[in-house]
Amino acid sequence: MPSRPLRLAGLAALVSAPLGLAAQVPFPPVARQMEHVSLWHGEKVDDPWFWLREKANPEVVAYLNAENAYTGAMTKDLQPFSEALYKEMLGRIKQTDLSVPVRRGAFYYYSRTEEGKQYPIQCRRKAARGGAYDERADEEMLLDQNELAKGLKFLSLGGMAVSDDDRTLLFSTDVTGFRQYKLFTKDLATGRVSAPLAERVTSTAWASDHRHIFFVTEDDVTKRSNQLWRMDLKDGKSEVVFEEKDELYGIGVTRTKDRKYLVVESRSTDTWETRYLASSKPRGAFKVLLPREKGHKYDMDHREGTFYIRTNKDAKNFRLVTAPAATPGMKHWKPFIPHRADVLLEGMEPFQDFLVVAEKSQGLSRFRIQDIKSGHWKDVSFPESVYAAFPGGTPEYTAKAFRFSYQSMVTPPSVLDCDMASGKQTLLKQIEVLGGYDKAQYTTERLWATARDGAKVPLSVVYKKAVKRDGNAPLFLYAYGSYGYGQAATFSSPRLSLLDRGMVYVIAHIRGGNDMGEAWHDDGMLMKKMNTFTDFIDSADFLVKEQWTAKDRLVIEGGSAGGLLMGAVTNLRPDLFKAVHSAVPFVDVMNTMMDASLPLTVGEYLEWGNPNEKAAFDYMRAYSPYDNLQKKAYPAILITTSFNDSQVMYWEPAKYVAKLRTLKTDSHPLLLKIKMDPAGHGGASGRYDALKDKAFETAWMLQQVGITK
User: Fold this and answer.
1) What is the pTM of this model?
2) Catalytic machinery residues
3) In whole angstroms, what is the distance from residue 506 CA to residue 409 CA?
4) Which of 53, 83, 107, 568 has its Cα between 20 and 30 A from that of 370?
5) Is 152-341 a CATH 3.40.50.2300 domain?
């Protein structure tokens, strides 16, 4: 195929043009096409934009910079609105604030923010005699991320843990956006920070002797977490104590609630395996709790000589069993919580006198607490019918109160303690929304859309009460739908900028997540992945039919695997959507999944399918957004990504845009906005930078439905 030069002349002319020519519409960049043939199952497949994978190629960088310049030129008129939205969104945030202190041993730990600073500051105070929080105690600054970030474009704080003797901080940082974390220690008495102890660290844990640490590192090519290391901080020597050789699995290291055991989990999509070692014997050998068995997922915690094991053995939605720590094999299991077809057992947290379990039913999370001595259970009740609740982190094994976070689409995030004996809840903090936010002006509800195969898809909805349901309201539909990750009905203060302008906001809890249990995930993966896309389309059709909105008032958004969703549904039903924001989108499915050398690819065969198998290849190819672009009209599309994204490589959205430019028959915007400075899968690391990005994306989406102020 003949190549074409990178066409930048039209854009360059606009950028440097006299004011009289500023009204000209710039030409979009055109990436040259160069033949690249792959042989897939005996078929020759040409991908003329494959060369955009050459990250070090100056022509690739020039093309991406040209796309950014084009987006800047095409959205120049949007800047005043974007800046106004940023000030509006920032005006709702209490910039100088303090998290709720949480006790760990002899100290209370918290983070605080200061107005004008991008990052939080990690601190602690000595607990008062008797264990209460004493705000008069001297503050000890553990890490000031703003100081760490000086001179850097990006900073991400990874793990952070203090040794059992409270003297040494273990922490990791990434300054690239590629999730390459370096590990450090900080002597909390002297303030001395070590040189990097290790690189590419993904999880860490202290032994109880506050001398040995354990950490996991990732493969430098595939980014699979595959090696467990033990280091003696006294002599600085480290050694690999376990290596996960199966490419389908990744590993992580943690400690049990009571800190008595170190735990290493090996996980693939459908099979989990656990190893454990007494944290007081760090030089010992890890034991396998239960040998891996295809399809068996289990995890465990420890309490008073007993392992509490959450297992899906003969229990699709998991059940809970106990076993003696000395003999944890299946023949010693005792039933504790039975399997329920309509309730997903998501997790458990054992305390000295209580057990807390997290469950999910009908797309909503809940907690139950058992008094171990009496065996009595009590439910933690919530005041709204649609909400989100998460365990809030209660580190102390001897705690009498269980901390959790509660919010809804109209209730700001709140931190509560629940007395585990009485069930009494105490509100410790609710995020303050500045600017006179009145939740009574808004309403949230649960709708159910019927998918084409009869499945009932839950929808979480929020809108201002003044909005009329007559088909004229703009509507923002969001979804994810992959990896078994459910989408909670959470609060967002930036979202108020949509709601206050009359837009309805909806989360579609489509198949591929676990919102309705493990089967909900199974029905949206592998050879049933198409359900994810048709659920979204059917949800959108339902919202139009029920007059929540109209096709020309409907905007949609998804990121990462949710960006795959955006690409697939836009190919299937481009007539249904007015505008699309696709963030860090996984759109080049076939090229990525056929390349086992790329980060994360092999481990994802169990989620998407192994394309080396013809049946899986054909099924995946039928929905891959990049491979199914056609010559037809598309909605307005904004794609955002990062040059240093480690999860979805920048070239996927870049190739998608380059190819679509040659096919789309409409005049709607197609924009690519890529962060060329260090940034990650989640975008900018600083809170102000991230909010500016959110303001721009919000302004663009609102503009597509005619709202410009």
Assistant:
1) 0.93
2) 560, 645, 681
3) 10
4) 107
5) no
